[in-house]
């Protein structure tokens, strides 16, 4: 009551923003409990960017309560709307030199001849394609300018600036990455100053402590086993192709290496085994790229659009059930009432939709023939069966 007016306004403003700060702190705490990793090594510089999170261990089975933003049901479209809390995203337009408009037939699911090859696509809001760097060949430190929303993918992107040249580029943001962070890429090789600090010899422990920070890109043979990575490549000279969606990650399972007499490990093979988000265990090149951390926007899977119009804004058209169509539109159509039609599920073109439909290049084992009515009462059978 006896405070100055300026101080009183600051106190009121801080009290008003307290709930959002608490929500953000709870979200960050749950994220760290789920994704954060190993204890920081003593060799890591305390003032280094990202030193608070040097490596990432595999996420535990702990259930994390999603922190979503809900709305008062002022309209029917807001009643069921749920969105992730991403208050750190950039509110303005993208960096236009790295974008180009998405126009033409590609938005309608059509190929170069104008025929629909992907169903249920069309319409949608106007978009600009963001040119994202999936190679990360540029060495040296890059400063994160801001974290942006990308309408063309589920994860967020980060606008980074190369310190040496001032060149800007987009990369897939890691979970927890914020403006002001410094990330590097060691895909072109280890810098000479880092090599000299290790005595001219690569020490795997010191190298991991100094390079395995959130958002850094490294060849897979330089990443310790058990580290959580995303933006994983497949070839030595190729871009990142795996684990690029929101909240996805891969785990480095093993390397083809042998232990020498002095206890050091040396790569002897050409591949590194990684476990992808789908559970697939895959061999990729040891020189393929990977980024430390987890792809951003981990709460994307819990969102609810709330109304059909938001699907249309996302370029998604309605999907109609086959049993709701007429018989001339779909094999499941027709009949009186909600009729199943006594037929195995098939696509609109008659291809079986369930298991068991396999084809061969030289001999089609699923080709059906109709035998004469007087022999088999008009029933269809496989041509491979004996007459």
Automatic annotation (TrEMBL):
Record field: compositional bias (Basic residues): 333-343
Large ribosomal subunit protein uL2 C-terminal domain residues: 212-352
SUPFAM superfamilies: Nucleic acid-binding proteins, Translation proteins SH3-like domain
Annotated region described as Disordered, given as residue ranges: 100-125, 323-365
Membership in a protein family: Belongs to the universal ribosomal protein uL2 family.
Record protein name field: 50S ribosomal protein L2
Domain Large ribosomal subunit protein uL2 RNA-binding stretches: 109-185
Keywords, comma-separated and alphabetical: Ribonucleoprotein, Ribosomal protein
Superkingdom, taxonomy of origin: Eukaryota
Coiled coil: none
Species the sequence originates in: Remersonia thermophila
